[in-house]
Design a protein that fits this description.
Pyruvate-ferredoxin Oxidoreductase, domain 3, 6-stranded mixed beta sheet, single chain, globular, alpha/beta
Length: 184
Amino acid sequence: MRKDVLIAGFGGQGVLLAGNLLSYAAIDEGKNVSYFPAYGVEKRGGSATCTVVIADGAVGSPVVGQPSVLVVLNQASLERFGARVRPGGVLIVNSSLVDVSALGRTDIEIVSVPMNEIATDLGDPRMVNMVALGAYVALTDAVKLPSLAAALSQALPERNHKFIPANVKAIETGAEAARAKKEA
């Protein structure tokens, strides 16, 4: 088994935390993981991406030129990375902020989830990353949802552990939304 994902958005959307959490969950499941974050010099609003490769065997490189799954949280990320998705791959889109109509790809599966709306409805618009991660896991089975919930205590600083139940709810809601879109 080998799964790879590129998560892309802007600084402040929690892209790096999402990748870090996914990595911890995979490690806790006994899988090999490579986590490769990249971000602009700006504190908020600049580009933020991370690549996570999960495998049963050795992970050769953290660099993935054509990811099998791309999670985009903003329009600029779609424009920059949308063409890179491997044919037959999956594009998971934050339809709250991203319009895929100009992408012109028919060789990939596109799953649109209104991540910002879901996070806001749950009471915290900052949880868009957890909604996205739930959607990713529901569509790929890269890790189990309970593993993500358990790994939150490793990925979040102790001062933020009080937010773990809300994050778990956001992950579960993102997973439900992605499953519903896939079945539709």
